[in-house]
């Protein structure tokens, strides 16, 4: 549906962002200034105790300084209610008392049809609930009691029973005035291929209603009471309301519980979710009879940055975990991952709860494995790597998996963890390669906790691999950027995304960046006030008077927006290039480590000779060496790259 011009502007004018957000958060009264529309609260999008979520009611925008969520009232409703754009518009328009424009007739017809299907499901749910109280459901009630599901629990999860008849629900719904085509389209009955009336989809089954995050009954799951039934669990067929690959059981309640600090647990089925919820693990969901899908992963990451996949402790459960890994690897982002809690052999979460109580489940969840550890387990468990060919096959399999990770930084961290695990497997622990420790061969240094970073190696102490010089240079570039936007605050909004992504190692830089993003001053005097409030007048003076800052043209000639824009853009580009170079060097180390010793030695000599010829050419001693377009000076960054390449190769060779 298209909206007429001006409708959204009118909607935003009538909508108070603070009221919309205020339904989901508790404002921090100490930090907030409601009279000025400046409001602060703990972020509703990620778990935190501090108030880093800022609402500017006058501008109609919110921003979180922790998870960087930002947007307006429409985006807030979309994210918190998990609805589409038009649904968010309808919600806000209703609250604002603004009539929605006339819908496209076909769109209106589709919406009306969805509402009718939901009503049919609600009528079916009432029927199933009533049937669970009858004598025909005595075996079902006994089974639920045996599984520890008391009557109050059954009521909370709206459990029901489908009687063992062919047309009990069909006849009931028709008697309620629900059209036959609606019953069929909702998946509550199926057409007969014998020329008879349609028959009920669910028969002689315990019924679990499935609701969407908005609370609508969209489908049902049924557990067979007959042990000889071909399908132990049966879900409603897909319908305009229900797509099982996009739906999670207990989605709405788990989202609310996770927002209050509960860890999000992904179990295998209905009974596990109910058992976990009743034991206090209220943020529990389950996919619906299928492996976890990409759409379900997206739902999970909207609820929690690190859901815990809790699977049965058997081969099938482990294989399910491996399938989730293959699905998740290409979708990973910094801060968005999965952990895996494997139950004891032969038990699911419900079994463990009944046998050993919530404490045992909590212990398993506390020990949940990060995804990289389970990936390693899959590729190595039960295998012997006693030959170069087998080791090479392992390396290839792991490389192929890591290539699926799109985020270069994340891929680098995975590669480092895999490298550490590989070393432990093949050599029984990572040695300290520092010289002078005494003893023969590679002596081990002082004890170091597992997983702690290696101390700098002598051959790389001054190189890009340690990056001490580069860290200082990064701080210099950050100070130039911050000084430039301080003197030309109009650039803050233009470079907002780059400022958000800038990782500041200097606390003053971080404070200044956050202050600019929080207040986004539009003129130099207010920018100066914001900066002084963040790092003090002395801190601002020190920043602007620093030798490497004071000489920058846009600082000397304050107010030249064009020059300041070019300066800031160039410094951000150099920061990005430096990060790319570090990533390339990390990958180069991995590549070089896989080469034979003789090739590394030869490659080191070649790189050293290239560097030496470049130096001679720079000094005019080698007329045959091409030094570039200027014919005299080799670029400093190229020299740096050559030096880094030599040290990288040497580092890889000496780690053998």
Structure description:
With 656 residues, this protein is of the alpha+beta class. It folds into five domains: 90 residues, DNA Primase, Chain A; 135 residues, Alpha-Beta Complex (DNA primase DNAg catalytic core, N-terminal domain); 182 residues, 3-Layer(aba) Sandwich (Dna Topoisomerase Vi A Subunit, Chain: A, domain 2); 109 residues; 60 residues, no CATH class. It has 28 helices and 15 strands. The strands form four sheets. It has a five-stranded mixed sheet with strand order 12-11-13-14-15, with helices on both faces. It has a four-stranded antiparallel sheet with strand order 1-2-3-4. Strands 5-8-9-10 form a four-stranded antiparallel sheet, with helices on one face. Helix 13 links the parallel strand 13 and strand 14. About 8% of the residues have low confidence. Its EC number is 2.7.7.101. This is DNA primase. It comes from Litorisediminicola beolgyonensis.
List keywords for this structure.
alpha+beta; transcription; DNA Primase, Chain A; DnaG_primase; 9% strand; 15 strands; four-stranded antiparallel β-sheet; single chain; Dna Topoisomerase Vi A Subunit, Chain: A, domain 2; zinc
């Amino acid at each position: 549906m298209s909206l007429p011009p001006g409708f959204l502007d009118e909607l935003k004018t009538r909508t108070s962002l603070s009221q919309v957000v205020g339904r989901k958060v508790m404002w921090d009264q100490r930090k907030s200034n409601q009279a000025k529309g400046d409001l602060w609260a703990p972020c509703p999008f990620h778990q935190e105790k501090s108030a880093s979520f800022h609402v500017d009611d006058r501008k109609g925008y919110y921003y979180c300084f922790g998870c960087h969520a930002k947007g307006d009232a429409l985006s807030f409703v979309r994210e918190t209610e998990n609805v589409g754009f038009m649904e968010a518009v309808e919600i806000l328009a209703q609250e604002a008392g603004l009539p929605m424009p006339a819908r496209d007739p076909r769109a209106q017809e589709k919406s009306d049809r969805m509402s009718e299907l939901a009503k049919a499901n609600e009528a079916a749910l009432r029927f199933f609930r009533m049937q669970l109280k009858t004598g025909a459901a005595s075996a079902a009630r006994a089974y639920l009691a045996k599984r520890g599901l008391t009557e109050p629990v059954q009521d909370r999860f709206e459990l029901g029973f489908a009687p063992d008849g062919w047309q009990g629900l069909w006849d009931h719904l028709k008697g309620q005035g629900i059209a036959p085509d609606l019953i069929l389209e909702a998946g509550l009955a199926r057409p007969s291929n014998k020329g008879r009336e349609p028959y009920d989809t669910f028969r002689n089954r315990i019924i679990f209603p499935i609701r969407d995050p908005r609370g609508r009954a969209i489908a049902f799951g049924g557990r067979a009471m007959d042990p000889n039934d071909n399908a132990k669990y049966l879900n409603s067929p897909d319908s305009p309301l229900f797509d099982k690959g996009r739906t999670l059981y207990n989605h709405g309640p788990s989202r609310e519980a996770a927002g209050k600090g509960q860890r999000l647990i992904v179990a295998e089925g209905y009974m596990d979710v109910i058992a976990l919820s009743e034991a206090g693990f209220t943020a529990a969901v389950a996919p619906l009879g299928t492996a976890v899908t990409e759409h379900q992963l997206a739902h999970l990451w909207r609820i929690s940055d690190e859901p815990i996949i809790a699977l049965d402790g058997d081969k099938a459960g482990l294989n399910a975990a491996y399938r989730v890994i293959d699905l998740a690897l290409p979708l990973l982002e910094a801060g968005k991952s999965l952990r895996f809690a494997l139950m004891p052999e032969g038990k699911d979460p419900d079994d463990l709860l009944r046998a050993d109580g919530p404490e045992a489940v909590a212990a398993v969840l506390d020990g949940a494995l990060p995804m990289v550890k389970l990936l390693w387990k899959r590729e190595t468990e039960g295998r012997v790597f006693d030959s170069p060919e087998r080791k090479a096959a392992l390396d290839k399999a792991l490389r192929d998996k890591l290539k699926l990770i799109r985020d270069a930084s994340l891929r680098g961290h995975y590669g480092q963890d895999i490298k550490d695990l590989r070393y432990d497997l093949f050599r029984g622990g990572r040695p300290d390669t520092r010289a002078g420790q005494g003893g023969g061969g590679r002596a081990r240094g002082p004890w170091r906790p597992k997983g702690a970073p290696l101390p700098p190696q002598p051959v790389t102490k001054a190189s890009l691999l340690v990056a001490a010089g580069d860290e200082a240079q990064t701080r210099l570039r950050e100070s130039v950027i911050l000084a430039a936007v301080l003197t030309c605050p109009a650039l803050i909004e233009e470079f907002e995304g780059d400022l958000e992504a800038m990782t500041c190692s200097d606390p003053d830089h971080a404070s200044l960046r956050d202050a600019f993003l929080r207040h986004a001053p539009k003129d130099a005097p207010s920018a100066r006030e914001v900066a002084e409030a963040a790092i003090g007048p002395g801190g601002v003076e020190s920043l602007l008077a620093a030798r490497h800052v004071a000489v920058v043209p846009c600082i000397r000639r304050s107010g030249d927006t064009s020059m300041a824009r070019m300066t800031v853009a160039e410094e951000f580009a150099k920061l990005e290039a430096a990060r790319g170079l570090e990533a390339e060097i990390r990958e180069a180390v991995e590549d070089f480590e896989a080469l034979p010793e003789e090739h590394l030695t030869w490659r080191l000599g070649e790189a050293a000779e290239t560097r030496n010829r470049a130096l001679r050419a720079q000094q005019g001693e080698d007329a045959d060496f091409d030094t570039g377009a200027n014919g005299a000076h080799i670029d400093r960054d190229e020299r740096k790259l050559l030096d880094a390449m030599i040290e990288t190769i040497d580092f890889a060779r000496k780690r053998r």
